[in-house]
Design goal:
Number of domains: 2
Radius of gyration: 18 Å
Number of helices: 8
Number of strands: 12
Strand content: 15-25%
CATH architecture of the largest domain: 3-Layer(aba) Sandwich
Shape: globular
CATH superfamily of the largest domain: AF0625-like
Distance between the termini: 27 Å
Largest sheet: 6 strands, mixed
Strand order of the largest sheet: 2-1-3-8-4-7
């Protein structure tokens, strides 16, 4: 059970500061660290530089907490309005922090509950113009000692500083932290294939009994055995099966290779179409 959360943001990041500023109103006693209290809650850690790089982070501080949440901006070439959730890590190359071939630890259960609450709050506050989406596992930092995730506001300067959006993200984080419970009835899965913004996996995460941890997309190239085993290793909960975005692979040959890897390692798998929503 996660009780002590650390919210990490860069002082250079308008979206991160927007989220943490709004989130401060949900702290019961801002003058006392949650580490000193016998209750569930969160502290802030504001970093001078970019949070994608381990060299900018105090790992000794991070390791004192149960769960790490990075609040950040989301960048997009098209500038879409979006709120995104994902785990950091680099299944292949490491162009923006972290290490090649290594991904961070995360919790499928917390990711699912956070995503459900984000969708509910977005609907309540009529954010129809915003895409609420998971992203595939990507970029740094590499956090292997504690489960973590990113929640991001995108994708222009206007959205980064929009206090209404900052409040909705902050309220979602506060709700998820307060209400998080380990759910033995959820099935746990990693997700393989498909595009970066995971439309088929989004539906499963929000509408089904399945909780997804890492998403390894097809656009990064061949999905290898090492990638799959790393995603399983870096999921806090025991994996029940892998979900394949059946039509989201570049071709049937790549898909067949993934199926062979899963079966070789005795990992059950299902198509996205086979998940009851």
């Amino acid at each position: 059970m996660y009780r002590k959360f650390l919210i990490v943001a860069s002082k250079k990041d308008k979206a991160g500061i927007n989220i943490t500023t709004q989130l401060s109103q949900f702290r019961k006693n801002p003058l006392v660290s949650v580490l000193q209290k016998d209750e569930k809650g969160f502290d802030f850690y504001l970093v001078d530089d970019e949070i994608l790089y381990n060299k900018n982070l105090d790992m000794e501080k991070i390791n004192k907490y149960d769960f790490i949440i990075f609040a950040s901006r989301h960048s997009s070439g098209k500038g879409e309005k979006a709120i995104t959730i994902h785990t950091p890590g680099n299944p292949r190359d490491a162009k923006f922090g972290g290490e090649p071939g290594k991904i961070s630890k995360t919790s499928a259960l917390f990711l699912k509950q956070l995503f459900e609450k984000l969708n509910a709050n977005a609907e309540k506050h009529l954010l129809k113009e915003y895409d609420i989406t998971m992203e595939a596992t990507h970029h740094g930092p590499l956090i292997e000692t504690k489960p973590c995730l990113f929640i991001e506001i995108g994708s222009t300067e206007f959205e980064y500083s929009d206090r209404r959006i900052g409040f909705i993200v902050a309220k979602t984080l506060s709700d998820a932290i307060d209400s998080f419970r380990e759910n033995p009835y959820n099935e746990i899965a990693i997700a393989l294939g498909g595009p970066h913004y995971c439309p088929n996996f989004n539906k499963i995460q929000e509408k089904s009994n399945v909780a997804i941890s890492h998403v390894i997309p097809s656009y990064i190239g061949e999905i290898t055995e090492a990638m799959i085993l790393e995603a399983i290793k870096k999921t806090e909960e025991e994996i029940d099966f892998a979900i394949l975005d059946w039509k989201g692979f570049k071709n049937s040959e790549e898909r067949d290779k993934v199926v062979k890897i899963l079966e070789k390692n005795y990992i059950p798998w299902k198509k996205t179409s086979e998940i009851r929503k």
